[in-house]
Amino acid sequence: MPLAADPHTPASPPSAPGRGRTARHRAAVVATLAALVLPAVVGGSPVAAHAAPATTVPPASALPATTAPATSATAVTAPAPAAHSAAVPAPLALDDDFYTPPDPLPDGADGEVVRWREEPRQLSARNYLVMYHSTNATGHDVPVTGRVLVPGTAWRGDGPRPIVSVASGTRGVGDSCAPSRWLDYERPFIEPMLLAGWAVVVTDYEGLGTPGMHTYVVGQSEGRAVIDMVRAATNLPATGLRAGGKVAFSGYSQGGGGAMWAGELQPDYAPELDLVGVAAGGVPADLTEVAESLDGQVGFGFLLLAAYGLDAAYPELDLDSYLNERGRETFEREKDACVDVTLTHAFQNIGMFTATNPLRAPDWQARLDENRLGANPPDVPIRLFHGTLDEIIAPGQARTLRNEYCAAGAEVQWEWHVGEHVSTMVTGAPGVVAFLDRRFRDRPFLVHC
């Protein structure tokens, strides 16, 4: 139940500093961007992990049901992350054939498992790599991969162990960037969730790991992948997870968009899920406004990734017809790149890569509008948070999303964080875990509208 208290959270963020492009300012913001992308490249080339062979499974309807042992209903507070976490196993090699789907892809319902294998524990949790069916933005059946983490910690609340589908932040567009290969970004969220006894599932999204270009920031695809990751986890008996337990979606940045899209799509796409909450930060709710704010700024590289992603999702957009020679060379060079490539594009602009700006074309605008959040607020409580100085995802459009949800009658817990994009992810993690803990335990929570 919500608490109808108002903590007087300001409606608008404090004024950001001026946009002067002095050498000192540029150095500072590039350093900030480096802090965002360097974790993805630290550690060198991927190294093959020792894992059991992949197992192709029959349709979910043919799988035996599993029952998890009953647990105590004693309530506990979600613990803080351990001071010294277990080492994360080496990532999979790029040529690992697990990520190549059967050809042809067998028929299957959304969330039905195509293949899976158990791998060495990650973050002290049982660890499963899964390929499953999902539906993309144009309604086609596509294979998607992801991870299922089941902690040794018992769930001490009511009902089956809850599941959080964590949508990952920007990794890039190349297959080697897939979240299932590197669970680094989301550790501030995932570790306390596992310690609380919740299962965590992490999708790779469409085209990230599996063949084809990644449909980066295309919410209609990402939201379904986030939802179907939950279905896949409960369709796999080895996990011990049961359908019918409480579910939540969570994410930051690209993942914030994926989580919110999952929340908006769930009532029609997956009404069988017992969704109890969505927690999302740094949400790119309005792709047009985000793109305009990035053009010529430190995070311009993310705009290029978004153009690649939209073109991958909607081939009729024909990005190539808008590119100049430099743009075509850049696209060809970066089609397998990870997020660190954005560092090379700081303070560039769309005119450097295009003969005509595609984002102003009517067909591009129509697809951007299709992927704008706010039209269908989730039926469950929402926690939104955003950095007042976010230089990647414009704060103004996040405030607009909150206002639209509130006007539609949604229960929204809102929080500004004084900080930029990267630091807000870290400072926002404890609030996410606390909010979801209250939702899983049916405890009162604070709302701002």
From TrEMBL:
One of its GO terms (molecular function) is triacylglycerol lipase activity. Transmembrane segments: none annotated. GO terms for biological process: lipid catabolic process. Residues 1-25 are annotated as: Disordered. SUPFAM superfamilies: alpha/beta-Hydrolases. This is Lipase. It comes from Promicromonospora soli.
